[in-house]
Amino acid sequence: MPHPLYIDIHTHLFSPDPSVWAVRSFHQQEKQEAAHDAGPLSIGLHPWFLEAANLENDWTWLEKESARSEVVAIGETGLDRMQGPDLSFQEEIFLRHIRLAEARNKPLIIHCVRAWEELERVIRQANSPVPMVLHGFQKKEDVLERFLSLGLYFSFGAALLREGSTAQKAFCAAPLNRVFLETDDGTHPIQSIYEKAATLRGMELPELIEQIHFFN
Predict the structure, then answer these.
(1) Contact 65, 34 (CB under 8 A)
(2) By percentage, how much of the chain surpasses pLDDT 90?
(3) Which of 4, 57, 76, 90 is most exposed, with minimal Cβ within 10 Å?
(4) In what order do the strands lie in the sheet with 41-43?
(5) Residue ranges, the chain, pLDDT below 50
(6) How far apart, in Å, are the Cα atoms of 173 and each of 53, 166, 168?
(7) Is 68 exposed, middle or buried (0-12, 13-18, 19+ CB in 10 A)?
(8) Helix ranges, 85-136 (H)
């Protein structure tokens, strides 16, 4: 892969811009859309849409499709206390995603809402060498430090544009070799998020671009 100008590590939108290497994310209710996407893409069983009755079919789809070369990451997957089934079921499926990422030798994109203790416990239990990215990160620095110690990466999005946000503070505290940027499902272009990120770190934009790589 030639080195792109910008990396958007997690987006739900199509980007026609050739200067952006955008990893488009698809979940279990988007099987047809994922099948027709030329990549790069990530696929996973999103915790919001986990249903025991559909699990066998959904997991069969994920196992098969995750072997495609266009699929560069597994997920998003993870834990959500606000939406989705019982957390114990979410934890079981999250751990299965970790093992699948190991088998495919692909990184994992993680979604987490108000389940940080549980997430940490499952990651410790898995003890996996797979690179893991906490997407849309906007927690305080103590949470950042906990997951830094586990070797995780952090992806920051449009929350960086909100002055005084916890995302800004966490981004400024994070090592740049553990950081990615993303658009998720927002309307702000990745270029504006890069520009704000460079300003927050007191860097020139080209310098920041050179610092953000895809797991190398």
Answers:
(1) yes
(2) 94
(3) 57
(4) 6-11, 20-26, 41-43, 71-80, 108-113, 132-134, 153-156, 179-181
(5) 1-2, 216
(6) 43, 11, 9
(7) middle
(8) 87-104, 116-126
Domains and CATH numbers, the chain: 6-211 (3.20.20.140)
Q: What SS3 state is found at 208? A: helix
CA distance 56 to 205: 46
Q: Which two tokens stand for residue 53?
A: 């009755």
Give the E-state strand segments of 29-147 in sequence order: 41-43, 71-80, 108-113, 132-134
> Tell me: the pLDDT tens digits for 9-35?
999 999 889 999 999 999 999 999 999
Q: Exposure pattern of 32-42 as b/e (b: 16+ CB <10 Å)? A: eebeebeebbb
Six-digit token string for 83: 């939406």
Q: What is the pTM of this model?
A: 0.95
Angle at 70 (CA atoms; ends 54, 183), nearest 5 degrees: 80
